[in-house]
Amino acid sequence: MEPLAARIRPETLDEVVGQEHLVGPGKPLRVAIEKKHLFSFILWGPPGTGKTTIARIYARALDAELYELSAVSAGKDDIKKIVGEKGTLHFQPKVLFLDEIHRFNKAQQDFLLPYVESGELTLIGATTENPSFEVIAPLLSRCRVFVLEPLSEEALKRIVKRTKLKVKKDALEWLLSYANGDARKALGLLESTESLYGEVTAETLDKALESPHLRYDKKGEEHYDTISAFIKSMRASQPDAALYYLARMVEAGEDPLFIARRMVVFASEDVGLAQPTALVVANAVFRACETIGYPECTINLAHGVAYLARAEKSRASYDALRSAQADVAALGNLPIPKKIRNAPTKLMKDLEYGKDYEKYDKESYLPEKLKGKKYLK
Fold it and tell me: Of 93, 136, 289, 369, which is most buried, counting CB atoms within 10 Å of its CB?
């Protein structure tokens, strides 16, 4: 029998729950599907938010041949095989849904590029990683990027209701909190719970979560729960716990660049000004993982993790940025003081742009409305 998530997967746009900013009336993906507009695009967002569903609905609407590959296991030969197959209909477009496109290395993406460029393949890439960093520029430039959002609790409730399983209120609240916007995560645990215990309660959900039947899934909840525990252990300056969660990810075959990338972010977000060299170390670990790879780069990862966990912590620069962003969002583009504006033309100089500017001025350069504001504390 198919998994529960597959059995209740939407087959039309009207059945899709969530992602209204993309598939709602008049929104870009709905318009493209309704007008049968053939183009390549990338779906970027958290797991369990509808990337595969949208790709299948799109291909079906265009009467296209849909080929689904996972970049984890696919390679150049799989692409050759698809391109070489003759369509069942004359001029029937070929749509390639490439899940986890960020797992394709540069050489594989270079190989894919001419087929996308020529139109032999229409590419739909799916990724949980920022495509700006994971997809080569020539391929990215030929694709539109659509950002998917975590599903709201209301959306998840509607999805759970579709299963027709009896879920009590306290169990539903427990499940929604656990799922954290991921429909696949919610449905996977719901199905396991019902299968193991015959009823869905908060207690049976908790028991099923601890069951050995739920294995580490690099695309699912264990992946995100483990990286969360890893980061929080470093944040709490607990190197032993951080190294333990690192070991779990390594033993599960987690991508070392995924781990190292989180360490680079952590170095600035959580260590920051307290120990600025943390960013240097984290970047060096990332570079080592790029050039060495498994298994040796695990030593570099352990070195970096121990360093980051032991480092003094300061979120001052991170908090300052968020505070400044809040002001930008609330107040918009406030007028920049004239004395620090650029003055490349005579007109600008006549308007007193750059007048009285001094290199080591003590006066605040913030816009007038924000004079005296302190972001970095």
Answer: 289
Selection from 199, 41, 65 nearest residue 126 by Cα:
41
The Cα–Cα gap between 174 and 212 comes to: 20
**pTM assigned to the model:** 0.59
Using alpha carbons, list the distances in angstroms from residue 206 to 114, 127, 225: 49, 29, 15
Cβ–Cβ under 8 Å, residues 260 and 301 = yes
pLDDT in tens, 82-120: 988 655 445 688 999 999 999 898 899 999 999 999 999
pLDDT digits over 332-345, tens only? 889 999 999 998 88
Residue 222's pLDDT band, with cuts at 50, 70 and 90, is low
Mean pLDDT of the chain: 90
Domains of the chain: 19-147 (3.40.50.300), 153-209 (1.10.8.60), 221-310 (1.20.272.10), 323-370 (no CATH)
Contacting residues for 37 by C-beta, under 8 A, at least 6 apart:
31
Residues 6+ apart with CB under 8 A from 351: 338
